[in-house]
Design a protein that fits this description.
Layout: H1 2-28, H2 35-68, H3 70-94, H4 100-107, H5 110-122, H6 129-144, H7 150-179, H8 183-205, H9 210-215, H10 217-241, H11 244-251, H12 254-266, H13 272-300
Helix pairs in contact: 1-10, 1-12, 2-3, 2-8, 2-10, 3-7, 3-8, 4-7, 4-12, 5-7, 5-11, 6-13, 7-10, 8-10, 11-13
């Protein structure tokens, strides 16, 4: 059991690193295409890259698991697919208006939101540290965001909204992995679900041009194969043996990886107040997860 938990922690950390660095691909991949078209392309790549591996390793379990409870399987596919679609679309669209560090750090708002949504949906008690965490995050927003720039404010608002859907996705991913043991196949279906939804809305709101998509092939392949394919598969393995809250702590490092990558690759440098804002958000995220665990251990001892 200890080995499985350690493996899941490693999977979560690798997932976080890929998600963080994928912000570069997401940002640079919209020079010639819109956010919906980009998401369609990346999740199509993710689906194609995962499905053969999933069928090879999980074919026997796929038939057994789905037959065991088809209604629950479909329910979680819809919940996770819809939450992932809105989470990724809002995040992708936000990069048109704000920088990578803002998008990444505001995305990790999902960490304190996870226990709040667990309270609303499943009536789980919220620890007092969550409200302290929210205060830290609000001050962090004030320092990180530029309230004098309406364009940046729009981008930051989109990311904060997207964090709600990311929180829902993490919750449903954890619940799904408690009931089923087909992480790779489910990651493939999830990619197909989001890709189809993205294509549907892209056909309505954007001009899809294959030649323009090919111009962004490097960004699409990185975001699709690594972030949409490998990372979402590893997320399923990670949440098989660790609970939603500890997983969310590790995922919160996504903002750190993204900010460092943006600085090294795109030369997006933050000011002192922005950096303090980042640390306040990260501190708020860690408070929401570590304080309850510390109190629990102190009571046991």
């Amino acid at each position: 059991m200890k080995y499985k938990k350690s493996f899941s922690m490693i999977c979560a950390l690798v997932t976080t690193f890929i998600w963080g660095t994928a912000f570069i691909a997401q940002d640079t991949g919209m020079d010639n295409i819109g956010p919906l078209t980009f998401n369609f392309a990346r999740f199509f790549v993710g689906f194609v890259s995962i499905l053969p591996v999933a069928l090879f390793f999980e074919w026997g379990k796929i038939q057994i698991e789905i037959k065991s409870n088809p209604n629950l399987f479909t329910k979680y596919l819809c919940f996770m697919g819809i939450s992932l679609f809105f989470g990724t679309f809002l995040q992708q669209a936000s990069l048109l208006y704000t920088n990578i560090a803002n998008a990444a750090f505001f995305t990790v708002f999902y960490v304190p939101l996870v226990p709040i949504l667990l309270m609303v949906i499943y009536s789980k008690k919220v620890h007092w540290s969550i409200w302290v965490s929210i205060i830290f995050c609000v001050f962090g927003v004030y320092l990180l965001s530029d309230f004098s720039n309406s364009v940046i404010m729009l981008g930051d608002a989109l990311v904060i909204l997207c964090s709600v859907f990311w929180a829902l996705h993490i919750i449903y991913a954890g619940k799904f992995m408690e009931a089923f043991d087909i992480p790779m196949f489910y990651a493939a279906l999830q990619s197909a679900f989001v890709g189809i939804m993205s294509l549907f809305f892209a056909l309505i709101f954007e001009d899809i041009n294959i030649s323009n998509i090919l111009l962004e092939k490097t960004s699409v392949l990185y975001a699709g194969f690594f972030s949409g394919g490998i990372a979402f598969t590893l997320q399923m393995f990670a949440q098989k043996n660790i609970e939603e809250a500890p997983a969310a702590i590790i995922y919160s490092l996504e903002g750190v990886f993204a900010a460092i990558a943006a600085w090294l690759i795109l030369n997006q440098i933050l000011g002192l107040s922005n950096i303090i804002g980042c640390f306040l958000i990260l501190a708020g995220v860690l408070i929401s997860q570590l304080v309850p665990e510390i109190q629990k251990k102190l009571k046991i001892n």
